[in-house]
Structures
1.
Amino acid sequence: MWPAGSLAGFAIVGSPAFLASSMKMPLTALVLIVEFTRVGHDFLIPISLAVAGSISVFQLCVQIAARPVKTSASAGFRAVKPAMPSLEHLD
């Protein structure tokens, strides 16, 4: 796959990126992985970049999902509800 890096290194860099997006707490994910794995300071920059990238992609996906969907009708375009379902009926 990648001759310069080990698979463990990719897992150490990718896991805080996943945690940061799923928990919506990037700093907590970074600190948890560094404390649990006891990696050195040489992993901080790749982990930080991966966390920043995952949070950016997550925010972009949220913005795209919140846009109204346009459908073509005989009178032109009309806006309909967003694609994301609401959880208000569960209350």
2.
Amino acid sequence: MSEKAENMRTWAVTVTTKPTRVAPKNSKRKAILIYNNGDATIYIIDSPSKGINDGIPVPAKSDYTNRWTTAEIWAVAESGSQDVRVEEDA
């Protein structure tokens, strides 16, 4: 069983067709949920030097959850500017 988080934070990010940092590195992170509230697919990437061909797709109105990484997380949109919501448990 994983450790429970003591804190939860939420924020919004606008993800465009240029790589956008969605979450900073956080050594205390237990889990992160990224919800694509936009109308086009976004792609989760591990570096601003990568693009959609390297990413994990998150379709519009769906989410991505990771319970392992404490690394910085980036995203890039397939098109336009996408409204993305983040919940981080630490």
